Amino acid sequence: MAVSLDTTKLSNFIDGKWVDVRKSTAVINPATGEEIVDVPLSDAGSVDDAVAAAKKAQKEWALVPAPQRAEILYQVGTLLKERKERLSQLLTMENGKVLEEARGEVQEGIDMAFYMAGEGRRLFGQTTPAELNNKFAMSQRAPVGVVGIITPWNFPIAIATWKSFPAIVAGNAVIWKPATETPIMAYELAKIFEEAGLPNGVINVVFGSGQMVGNAMVHHDDIRVISFTGSNDIGRNIAADCGRKLKKVSLEMGGKNAVIVMDDADIDLAVEGILWSAFGTSGQRCTACSRVIVHEAVKEKLEEKLLQQMQHLTIGNGLNETIKVGPIINKVGLEKIKDYIEIGKKEGATLLEGGYELSGTDYMGGNFFIPTLFTDVEPTMRIAQEEIFGPVVSLIPVQSFEEAIEVNNGVSYGLSSSIFTRDVNRVFQAQRDLDTGIVYVNAGTTGAEIHLPFGGTKGTGNGHRDSGVQALDVFTEWKAIYVDYSGKLQRAQIDVE
Predict the structure, then answer these.
(1) Is the pLDDT of residue 471 over 60?
(2) Please, where are the H alpha helices in 171-327?
(3) What is the CA radius of gyration of the chain?
(4) Residue (of 229, 209, 399, 221) closest to 299 by Cα position
(5) Termini Cα distance of the chain
(6) By C-alpha distance, which of 186, 193, 185 is closest to 168?
(7) What contacts 480, CB < 8 A, 6 or more positions away?
(8) Would you call 315 helix, strand, or coil by DSSP?
């Protein structure tokens, strides 16, 4: 049974109230071209209102014991679990990803709620021996204050939970700017926060463009952290602007991820991993496999099996349970993919399969692109270096394990990598030498778990991580505390004999 929204126009959520905005734009279902709901296009004034509410709320929220803050997240997780199917269907409607992937994404939010709630009874600091008699030394985490999170359209609820849940349990208040393409998950999650009893002003949702709302957040003096997931170009600008204000910033900016298939690999398993990593979410993941680095001894066999399996990929509206590949998010994304197909041809790569937009009655109104395979791709070609963000894979032949590692590392990104091999020595060398924040062995490049850090090296980010306990480092400051119970003035280092 199809689900529906309880409104035709979304509103901002500021200080526990739903606030209407005059200007709006339509949210389009990428599989059908139909308008789903109107989303506000807020201005900087809405950001000011949200920050004022957050700043006031945060002072009281920080005084709530962390285990009590965690109880709210446990309730959020419970509500997410109860509404998983409804949320999954709404997610597919606004984003296009197939239902099984949407369910997996909502499950990430559920898992993150319970995981970060557990941190409410930890948030560990350290105790350490003091260097002077009758003195105690320790460190503890302190909230930063008001934090801003800017999230993308491709994982509209999972990434938001990676960022907002650790921020909230650590005692911060949050301003959240979701992507205008996929605002429904933000609307639904704000309602869940409200129902779970989160105090007014601790979470605030401001809908609007990056140019208007995102820019206002980055430049607002009272927002002390910006956590951003999106493009490299925008991330670099955010980093520069935040740097001038000495503002903490966490960036996750995509990848050019590769699956390495060695000559001793289980080829059938590798094909499964490549298909899922490359064409799941229509390749619109920052961890998607867009390069396959294959040993020349098994290149032809891998190509043959990949081509066979690609024929079985069903393409269409993700609400249909039989569909495996959904639409591209919008026309801009579709045109970008088409441009890269022409670039690949001009560079001399061989187009084995696909390379075109799907049209006709079955795809009317949607943005569908057929899964595409290039072969005999040189590592320096643009299609092997630049993020395409679509269902396009480049096969790059190599002659050795050492060359495979070199090709993998020879891009400006460093998010995720994968190797298929039965050689345990190569496994451990690959773990050491692959220059990415995530490494998979005998699996594809996707499927991160919430209790481990998510992020990468080089152009993928700036060293911070989403997810895992490491996410707490983004939203807390370390405070060193010394308690001297000697009854006299003791001077560190000076009075040490």
Answers:
(1) yes
(2) 184-196, 215-219, 232-244, 267-279, 299-310
(3) 24
(4) 399
(5) 77
(6) 193
(7) 137, 138, 139
(8) strand
Residue-wise pLDDT for 124-143, tens only, equals 999 999 999 999 999 999 99
pTM: 0.96
Q: Is 130 helix (H, G, I), strand (E, B) or coil?
A: coil
What is the rounded distance in angstroms from the CA atom of residue 390 to the CA atom of residue 369? 8
Residue 243 sits in the same domain as residue 321? no
Residue among 26, 27, 29, 2 nearest 328 (CA):
29
Cite the active site residues.
252, 286
pLDDT tens-digit map of 210-269: 999 999 999 999 999 999 999 999 999 999 999 999 999 999 999 999 999 999 999 999
**Do 189 and 271 share a domain, yes or no?**
no
Identify the residue whose tokens are 């700017």: 177
Pick from 252, 243, 256: nearest CA to 291: 256
CA distance 205 to 13: 5
Range of the domain at 353: 257-441
Instruction: Output DSSP code: residue 470.
Output: G
Cβ–Cβ contacts within 10 Å for residue 244, how many? 9
Which helix (H) or strand (E) segment holds residue 37: the answer is: strand 35-40
177 and 224 part of one domain: yes
Same domain, 167 and 25: yes
Same domain? For 46 and 179 the reply is: yes
In sequence order, which residues have a C-beta less than 8 Å from that of residue 491 and are 6 or more positions away? none
Domain boundary among 423, 441, 459: 441
- Distance, in Å, from the CA atom of 395 to the CA atom of 382, rounded to the nearest integer, reads 13
Note whether 202 and 215 are same-domain residues. yes
- The answer on 330 and 245 residing in a single domain is no
Helix extents (H) in 120-152: none
